[in-house]
Design a protein that fits this description.
Helix content is about 45%, strand content about 15%. By secondary structure, the chain is of the alpha+beta class. The chain folds into three domains: about 1-30; about 35-140, no CATH class; about 150-390, no CATH class. Strands 1-2-3-4-8-7-6-5 form an eight-stranded antiparallel sheet. A hairpin with a 2-residue loop joins strand 2 and strand 3 (about 215-230). The N and C termini lie far apart (about 145 Å). The relative contact order is 0.09.
Length: about 400
């Protein structure tokens, strides 16, 4: 070939060189592709899917508008625009893809408007969903707080109601007639169960304490509201928590296990409970003053706890202020329920924690002794005291 070129006229050789030079200098003569041109086209050929190929084609045409493969890719691009827009016009993802592939496309204005509208709708929907999640979480938190505070609300409520009673030492019907709030509260569910000497409302809250290495320990807090009569006259009201109820009250309020056999844990629960009760007494009876008290036995109930109060359901228990019960101790035949809390003949002698007194009432907070086995009461009582002039 070199020999043939040697025999060509010199002016022919110069003409060929000139044409080649013009092809290299002119962007319109794409006989030979540059290295960059080929590299960008290769990105189109090896694209993993149609979307990647369209984006690679867009990049190629942007960098090489007069490149070796520009006409081919431009034809593909022009032919695919309508289909891409139609396929993606109803979704934010499809519209974003169209605008990415065709930033200056024929449907650009319409695509941007539709994308703005869809984005606003999705943002509003997302906000609604987030609000709904927040509301559900708030409801769950409120229910959990209602359960945790059940013992405190029960003791505080009944302490206030009982200390507001302005008739003591008279028949119960007369007390109810003179004190509408007491009458309404005492008549709610769970209905009281009465004998000749006492009337009792049974409350119960079932709960669980999480324990590392275990699912949880099942517990329950029981509260017995007992009115005690002498010769048919109201003389004393008691809020009793069997089975070392101050410890169970603390567990419920703090979601924390109390080992009754641990003196420090037990004492901490007792002291915490005392601090809940004393302010309620002082708020209802500002004139109350401290008095010395000595332990005295807590007699077992003379009526039986109804079987319905033994339910171990997880529903919301009786709210002392609302009266809506999931495990109510409804009025029942005393003989039809479970046995009394304390076996007959057993004397429960608590530890007196604090005493307060007014001219007509005495308040005593007490806790079960460390050596008491079986049922042992924590709680408080309000007792009618005869004026000194009448003694």
């Amino acid at each position: 070939m070199s020999r043939r070129r040697e025999h060509q006229p010199r002016h022919v050789q110069l003409t060929l060189v000139g044409v080649a030079a013009l092809c290299l200098l002119s962007s319109s003569c794409a006989v030979v592709a540059s290295r960059a041109d080929y590299a960008d086209y290769r990105a189109v050929r090896v694209a993993s899917d149609d979307q990647a190929r369209m984006i690679a084609g867009r990049d190629y045409l942007s960098r090489h508008p007069d490149g070796r493969w520009a006409p081919q890719l431009q034809r593909e691009r022009d032919g695919a625009e309508d289909g891409l827009f139609e396929a993606g016009r109803s979704t934010t993802e499809g519209l974003r893809l169209y605008l990415e592939v065709y930033p200056d496309g024929r449907f650009g204005g319409q695509a941007r408007q539709r994308l703005a509208a869809l984005t606003a709708v999705q943002s509003h929907r997302s906000e609604e969903q987030e609000t709904a999640r927040d509301v559900r979480q708030e409801q769950r938190d409120a229910i959990a707080e209602q359960r945790r505070s059940w013992g405190t609300r029960s003791v505080t409520f009944w302490s206030r109601v009982l200390m507001s009673v302005n008739e003591w030492g008279v028949p119960l019907a007369q007390v109810a007639s003179a004190n509408p709030e007491f009458s309404e509260a005492f008549g709610r569910e769970p209905r009281p169960i009465c004998s000749a000497s006492e009337c009792i409302k049974f409350y119960r809250m079932d709960f669980g304490i999480p324990v590392p290495g275990r699912t949880r320990i099942e517990r329950n807090l029981r509260i017995l509201l007992r009115l005690r009569m002498q010769n048919g006259k109201l003389e004393r009201a008691e809020i009793l928590m069997p089975f070392r109820g101050f410890s169970r009250w603390y567990e419920l309020a703090h979601d924390e296990l109390v080992q009754d056999g641990d003196p420090e844990e037990r004492q901490a629960a007792i002291e915490w409970a005392r601090q809940q009760v004393v302010p309620a007494i002082r708020a209802a009876a500002p004139s109350a003053h401290g008095v010395d008290v000595v332990p005295e036995p807590i007699d077992p109930p003379t009526v039986h706890m109804p079987a319905s109060a033994e339910s171990d359901g997880e529903g919301a228990p009786t709210d002392p202020e609302a009266g809506a019960a999931a495990t109510p101790a409804a009025a029942a035949d005393p003989e039809a329920g479970a046995p009394a809390e304390v076996p007959e003949g057993v004397m429960v002698l608590p530890i007196a924690l604090q005493g307060l007194s007014t001219d007509s009432l005495r308040f005593v907070i007490f806790a079960a002794g460390d050596d008491d086995d079986g049922v042992a009461y924590d709680g408080l009582f309000i007792e009618h005291v005869q004026p000194a002039a009448d003694e």
